[in-house]
Amino acid sequence: MSDSSDLIDFDSLLTVAERTLRDSVRSFVDSEIKPNIAGWYEKAVFPLEIVPELAKLGLLGMHLDGYGCAGRSAVEYGLAGAELEAGDSGLRTFVSVQGSLAMSAIHKHGSEEQKHEWLPAMAKGEAIGCFGLTEATAGSDPGNMTTFARRDGGDWVLNGSKRWIGLASVAQIAIIWAQTEEGVRGFVVPTATPGFTATPIEPKLSMRASIQCDVELSDVRLPASAVLPNVVGLKGPFACLNEARYGITWGAMGAARDAFEAALAYSGTRMQFGKPLAGYQLTQQKLVDMALEINKGFLLALHLGRKKDAGTLHPDQISVGKLNNCREAIDICREARSILGGNGITLDYSPMRHANNLESVRTYEGTDEVHTLILGRKITGIPAFR
């Protein structure tokens, strides 16, 4: 957290190693991302040239152990995610799709051969991965997916379609989840395999400096060795989604903090009726309310991170972080935009861009409604999904 929004000495809760890692990512974002992000966002370009730099920082699969991965803690992963999303949600999403989804699926559920073949290259940024679970009519309810994999001799043949698949058009490897006669299975699919087609979804009003695709699978033939051997059922993809949801708890607060800082800086220099906006009570109330929620959001993220590192974090607790921090972050970004007035609708300032991005962040990896129902079930003991 930056000094301007830190009302509680948050840094005192972090170790030297955690602060050092965070500061290195913040420096990279400040020097390489923030000067360029407005142009990337306006042109709807994901900057592939930063992938090697993210790899050099050890951010790809950073919370995984072995196979060339950095083996950093959950808290360190979260801190890095917050700094990346302070630059732009699309950049943290890249790290999440690569590490928390695609690499995590192989690390958690793959064979030793699959791990050795893909994880070192993905950690180096030499191979990009994507994660195909969502379908056009099976988003919040992935159990109703229609993509199907059938056995054909010693091979598997996949048919179906996926939607909103991050990075698919630039990926070398896809983790595709499909129904089979024995339940949902995951498959490691090289994207060069005949029958695999990824088409970027355009135009978008959110996550413009990122890539999401429609994926078509037409008689995609794979060897038996392509299946992830160590999991059957939706618990496989859900284990990966929980990793991504945890990262969002931190990332959303990074976007909120950056929006707050933009509003604070602007209000200190924008003169109105003879004094800066920051000198007016209504502006100070907005700034204080934003700072309070940022502090609470980071404390929640840190608490969940400590529990994750201790092995005591439960999935419903991740829902607390994802639901609360996304909801608060988008409100903070909108309030920050109000301080900027008309200038706030331009790409010269970050709050409206962050707010637009957060419309996607609060939707993917479980909508507000889904996480509300998860917590409702936890509180009442009654599932209300249907």
From TrEMBL:
Annotated Gene3D superfamilies: Acyl-CoA dehydrogenase/oxidase, N-terminal domain, Butyryl-CoA Dehydrogenase, subunit A, domain 2, Butyryl-CoA Dehydrogenase, subunit A, domain 3
Acyl-CoA dehydrogenase/oxidase C-terminal domain mapped to chain residues: 239-379
Signal peptide start and end residues: none
Molecular function terms, GO-annotated: fatty-acyl-CoA binding; flavin adenine dinucleotide binding; glutaryl-CoA dehydrogenase activity
Cofactor(s) this protein requires: FAD
Keyword Nucleotide-binding in annotation: no
Gene Ontology BP terms: fatty acid beta-oxidation using acyl-CoA dehydrogenase; fatty-acyl-CoA biosynthetic process
Name of the molecule in the record: Acyl-CoA dehydrogenase
Source organism (scientific name): Arthrobacter glacialis
